[in-house]
Amino acid sequence: MGLPKGFPMKASPRLSTAGSRKVSPALHQAQQIARKYSEIEPVSKQVAVTVARLAATPMRLTSADKDMLNFLFARSKSIDWTDLSSPPIVWPSNREICIETGLSLATVKRCLRRLAERGLITFCDSADGKRHGHRCPETKRILRAYGINLAPIAVRLAELKELHRAAHEEKVFSKQYRREITRARRSIRMTIDAGLEYQLEGPWVEFLEALSLITDGMRTASMDLAELREIYSALVSLKERVDNAFLRASHQHNMNPQRGSK
DNA sequence: CAAATCCCTACAAAGTTCCT
DNA sequence: AGGAACTTTGTAGGGATTTG
């Protein structure tokens, strides 16, 4: 990906982007989302904090990311969230963030980048690359600020809540599916074993192979709901075939019981 | 022009997760 | 338990812009 190693970046110094933040589609989109801040219903800082925390896990944020979010929230004032005339921007320097969060510089940069990629923050860069801002001395409202913009969290509030709800639901369903998969697997296995043990007529060895085909290398812990559902339905149809075969064979066995009884 | 900021990538070390 | 594979963190090296 990107340019080959050692690619000369000096064709036109004015156009060179070396040394400044690269824009990815995700970063760009977060920027667009942040723009809608003035059109939304105000969201209290407390609600924003809570929803961001809930969304952190499904968004696969690291603990450093979460520390960073907490720090950024701590830097914003309540009025920044109720006053829609200016987005909730905070302007700590990276150095300050390092000192106050205990994260290294590299981690600070990476966390900010990740939060922006996830669409939780965007950057309002000043011309000099430094972060700074001004508040009205009386009202404490932000008049002008360059730094880290938390507006996407407010704009995406409903979406983030839904993300958390869906993740929670998936967790519950996954648990259910894993339980049912284990039940079906054991039931199939026991039926096959019985068929073999009583030497009933039936393709038990093939069934066994079919079962391992479905369940071998299965790591239910790291599977998503769709994969679990697929495995479950494969097991259900196998179970039906196995049960039918067993039923037929045991019926024959009862008609003709001298063979293979123990 | 140096200082103060910010940004980037590459690579190695350390930590974590998953599989056998 | 041990090892492979992946993720996260820290370090190093390099660049841009503005200000005094």
What does this structure look like?
Helix 3 crosses helix 6, helix 8 (157-197) packs parallel to helix 10 (225-255) and helix 9 (204-215) packs antiparallel against helix 10 (225-255). The protein has 10 helices and 4 strands, in the order ααααβααβββαααα. Strands 1, 2, 3 and 4 form a 4-stranded antiparallel sheet that branches. 58% of the residues lie in helices and 6% in strands. Strand 3 (132-135) and strand 4 (142-149) form a beta hairpin. 22% of the residues are buried. The chain folds into 2 domains: 25-155, Arc Repressor Mutant, subunit A (Orthogonal Bundle), CATH 1.10.10; 167-255. With 262 residues, it is an alpha+beta fold. The structure holds a DNA duplex (20 and 20 nucleotides). InterPro entries: RepC_N, WH-like_DNA-bd_sf. This is Winged helix-turn-helix transcriptional regulator. Residues 1-24 are annotated as: Disordered. It comes from Microvirga tunisiensis. Pfam families: RP-C (PF03428).
Q: Which helices and strands occur, and which strands form pairs?
A:
Layout: H1 25-35, H2 45-56, H3 63-75, H4 78-82, E1 89-90, H5 94-101, H6 105-117, E2 122-124, E3 132-135, E4 142-149, H7 151-155, H8 157-197, H9 204-215, H10 225-255
Antiparallel strand pairs: 1-4, 2-4, 3-4
The protein binds a DNA duplex (20 and 20 nucleotides) through residues 2, 5, 9, 13, 16-22, 62, 64, 93-95, 103-107, 109-110, 125-131, 217, 219, 221-222.
Protein name: Winged helix-turn-helix transcriptional regulator
Domain Plasmid replication protein C N-terminal: 21-194
Region (Disordered): 1-24
